[in-house]
Amino acid sequence: MLSIDPKEVSVGVLHGYLLGAVSPRPICFASTVDSEGNVNLSPYSFFNVFSANPPVLIFSPARRVRDNTTKHTLENVLETKEVVVNIVSYAMVQQMSLSSTEYAKGVNEFTKAGFTEIPSSFVKPPRVKEAPVQFECKVTEVIGLGSEGGAGNLVLCEVVKVHIDEAILDAEQKIDPFKIDTVARMGGNWYSRAKDGIFEVEKPLRTLGIGVDRLPMAIRLSKTLTGNDLGMLANVETLPSETEIATFVSQASEPYQYLITSGDENELHTEAQTLLSNGKLHEAWCLLLSKK
């Protein structure tokens, strides 16, 4: 394994490793204005949501590594204490990338990138009409993390108004992850399209999983079952009862009967793995416990 002391490599090299590893990162498409009302629009991937009560987003316009200068966005939020955080969908990504060009101060990136300005309700910066979600925010604090190139500046944004395109909502008025079609930053020039990699993992909130340490040793030390498989198996409160296992065996298909009576352990674990991949956790457990 490559081990790195941050103090022994250049900031540029370290920056590359950090961004390549901490990914995908959501994108804050920040619209701001300066004290004279000049509009700026720029994307930042040092960004996330950190609180729901109060609703707080944080993004970080870092000092440029090459010459230690600051971004217009940072200068604007320090002057006016307001920002609109626009969420970026796949349909916007090329225009958004264009807006990251380092235009001179006073140049409106809405115009350069071809986005549509729409007025906000409670803050001066305009919203991006094309964005599926727009957060109007008051900047409560800016925390500088250093004075050298590459140092971040945490912009704490309290959300005062949320605008959501109804086209991205499902029947329950929740945001549909496929419809919102967000993109995220990876390392280098790479992006990730969220809906192409979506999968569902049930949160262990309603149950207390038995834990990997309580799995039968043959399962825990399996040469076939992966860490993901063990995590799924361990996220049950109780194991199937003897009655449930007996019922499963009595109703098992001929291939399963063979696995239970004559198949080797690896074959059994491979079939259980298939059941797990199809969301059949109870059946996987019954199969694993049916072989004595």
Describe this structure in words.
- With 292 residues, this protein is of the alpha+beta class.
- Strand 11 and strand 12 (191-193) form a beta hairpin.
- The strands form three sheets. Strands 3-2-6-9-10-5-4 form a seven-stranded antiparallel β-sheet.
- It is built from eleven helices and twelve strands.
- Helices cover 30% and strands 22% of the residues.
- It is elongated.
- It folds into two domains: 6-197, Pnp Oxidase, Chain A, CATH 2.30.110; 212-290, no CATH class.
- The chain starts with 10 loop residues before the first helix and ends with a helix.
Characterize this entry briefly:
Helix content is 30%, strand content 22%. With 292 residues, the protein is of the alpha+beta class.
Q: How are the secondary structure elements laid out?
A:
Layout: H1 11-21, E1 25-26, E2 28-33, E3 39-44, E4 47-52, E5 55-59, H2 72-80, E6 82-87, H3 93-99, H4 109-113, E7 117-118, E8 127-128, E9 133-144, E10 153-164, H5 177-180, E11 183-185, E12 191-193, H6 217-220, H7 227-234, H8 242-250, H9 254-261, H10 265-277, H11 281-290
Antiparallel strand pairs: 1-11, 2-3, 2-6, 4-5, 5-10, 6-9, 7-8, 9-10, 11-12
Helix pairs in contact: 8-11, 10-11
